[in-house]
Amino acid sequence: MTKTLLLLPGDGIGPEVTAQSRRLVGWLNANAGLDVSVCEARFGGAAIDADGVPLTPETLALAKASDAVLMGAVGGPQWAKQSYDKRPEAGLLALRAGMEVFANLRPALCFAALADASSLKREFVEGLDIMFVRELTGGVYFGEPRGISDLGNGERRGVNTQVYTSSEIRRVARVAFELAAKRTGRVCSAEKSNVMESGLLWREEVQALRDAEYPHIDLSHMLADNTAMQLVKYPKQFDVILTDNLFGDILSDEAAMLTGSLGMLPSAALGVKGMPGLYEPIHGSAPDIAGKGLANPCASILSLALALRYSLDRGDLADRVEKAVATALDRGARTGDIGGTLGTVAMGDAVLAALAG
Ligand code: ATP
Ligand code: MG
């Protein structure tokens, strides 16, 4: 049956990199037995300019009715000074919340051809393949109470609250266990159970779910500060790292830098089984190079690969696309961010050529 993919190109380099992923879908439809129909909608700053809001109710409905959503990037200096609800980023949070995508998958994958671009020595990162599973819709970014209050005499107080319920912890832990079962079977859960009640609950719930339903998973627990150290000391010790919204934000950015390039890394945000996933590069809209045809499309192409694997039931094609990106790099294809001279379209050509054989 035909599956549907909604493209939200967004702002800055978003439309340029998304166009290369769209080309790839066309190629896979024509040559590899894929059956995906693509549609496009405005999102972020582009939607603010045309529709007055970053995410219209129609676009959200379209996203929820699709099998997968592939986003480019949102934001740019021209919208940065507007009130929050008129900012592109507000559209992104509304989309994540509206689609109820609570599990953020962020691979930190080091391509052999780029291993020398890491801040660590080649031997420490070559073959690196970590999958972060970050809780995305709870924790301290959303907990109540929150706000800044005036205490008088010029003194002020800022409050955020870290809150997790057992069901929020278990549903994201389940995603990590299911993923690990298809990899090496190891999950490391990172929290601060020594100083935080929510961290203690996190550790207890993750362990209880593992004992009850995933006895074959090799689960370890690590304090998040130690995880940060271990990531730069010996990152290859990790397979799947499960963690909350805040620690996951920081630790996955740290690990991304080990792999050499922002322009190469995809992400997925998943909700309950059967609901559409949201896929996007981890990089931003890169206003400094937007419209110049210089952006690296690989993060978008690899995000499409994740969509093929997790939402479009074509894990086989996901493997092929990932292999094609690695092959293009092995053959020397490089955009500027990874030390080469190719433009966006030429890099897309190189991946398509590798895919074709
Ligand atoms: P945001 O707030 O939107 O996440 P950011 O400050 O994190 O933005 P990015 O937009 O990700 O920044 O860009 C950071 C730097 O990396 C910029 O110099 C940008 O040009 C470069 N960059 C980001 N993505 C790419 C890409 N796909 N190809 C080439 N360079 C990129
Ligand atoms: Mg950023």
TrEMBL record:
<keyword id="KW-0479">Metal-binding</keyword>
<keyword id="KW-0432">Leucine biosynthesis</keyword>
<keyword id="KW-0100">Branched-chain amino acid biosynthesis</keyword>
<comment type="similarity">
    <text>Belongs to the isocitrate and isopropylmalate dehydrogenases family. LeuB type 1 subfamily.</text>
</comment>
<feature type="binding site">
    <location>
        <position position="225"/>
    </location>
    <ligand>
        <name>Mg(2+)</name>
    </ligand>
</feature>
<dbReference type="InterPro" id="IPR019818">
    <property type="entry name" value="IsoCit/isopropylmalate_DH_CS"/>
</dbReference>
<feature type="binding site">
    <location>
        <position position="253"/>
    </location>
    <ligand>
        <name>Mg(2+)</name>
    </ligand>
</feature>
<dbReference type="Pfam" id="PF00180">
    <property type="entry name" value="Iso_dh"/>
</dbReference>
<dbReference type="GO" id="GO:0009098">
    <property type="term" value="P:L-leucine biosynthetic process"/>
</dbReference>
<keyword id="KW-0464">Manganese</keyword>
<dbReference type="GO" id="GO:0005829">
    <property type="term" value="C:cytosol"/>
</dbReference>
<keyword id="KW-0028">Amino-acid biosynthesis</keyword>
<feature type="site" description="Important for catalysis">
    <location>
        <position position="141"/>
    </location>
</feature>
<comment type="pathway">
    <text>Amino-acid biosynthesis; L-leucine biosynthesis; L-leucine from 3-methyl-2-oxobutanoate: step 3/4.</text>
</comment>
<feature type="binding site">
    <location>
        <begin position="284"/>
        <end position="296"/>
    </location>
    <ligand>
        <name>NAD(+)</name>
    </ligand>
</feature>
<feature type="binding site">
    <location>
        <position position="249"/>
    </location>
    <ligand>
        <name>Mg(2+)</name>
    </ligand>
</feature>
<feature type="binding site">
    <location>
        <begin position="76"/>
        <end position="89"/>
    </location>
    <ligand>
        <name>NAD(+)</name>
    </ligand>
</feature>
<keyword id="KW-0963">Cytoplasm</keyword>
<feature type="binding site">
    <location>
        <position position="225"/>
    </location>
    <ligand>
        <name>substrate</name>
    </ligand>
</feature>
<keyword id="KW-0460">Magnesium</keyword>
<dbReference type="GO" id="GO:0003862">
    <property type="term" value="F:3-isopropylmalate dehydrogenase activity"/>
</dbReference>
<keyword id="KW-0520">NAD</keyword>
<dbReference type="InterPro" id="IPR024084">
    <property type="entry name" value="IsoPropMal-DH-like_dom"/>
</dbReference>
<dbReference type="InterPro" id="IPR004429">
    <property type="entry name" value="Isopropylmalate_DH"/>
</dbReference>
<keyword id="KW-0560">Oxidoreductase</keyword>
<comment type="function">
    <text>Catalyzes the oxidation of 3-carboxy-2-hydroxy-4-methylpentanoate (3-isopropylmalate) to 3-carboxy-4-methyl-2-oxopentanoate. The product decarboxylates to 4-methyl-2 oxopentanoate.</text>
</comment>
<protein>
    <recommendedName>
        <fullName>3-isopropylmalate dehydrogenase</fullName>
        <ecNumber>1.1.1.85</ecNumber>
    </recommendedName>
</protein>
<dbReference type="GO" id="GO:0051287">
    <property type="term" value="F:NAD binding"/>
</dbReference>
<comment type="subunit">
    <text>Homodimer.</text>
</comment>
<dbReference type="GO" id="GO:0000287">
    <property type="term" value="F:magnesium ion binding"/>
</dbReference>
<feature type="binding site">
    <location>
        <position position="134"/>
    </location>
    <ligand>
        <name>substrate</name>
    </ligand>
</feature>
<feature type="site" description="Important for catalysis">
    <location>
        <position position="192"/>
    </location>
</feature>
<feature type="binding site">
    <location>
        <position position="96"/>
    </location>
    <ligand>
        <name>substrate</name>
    </ligand>
</feature>
<feature type="binding site">
    <location>
        <position position="106"/>
    </location>
    <ligand>
        <name>substrate</name>
    </ligand>
</feature>
<feature type="domain" description="Isopropylmalate dehydrogenase-like">
    <location>
        <begin position="4"/>
        <end position="351"/>
    </location>
</feature>
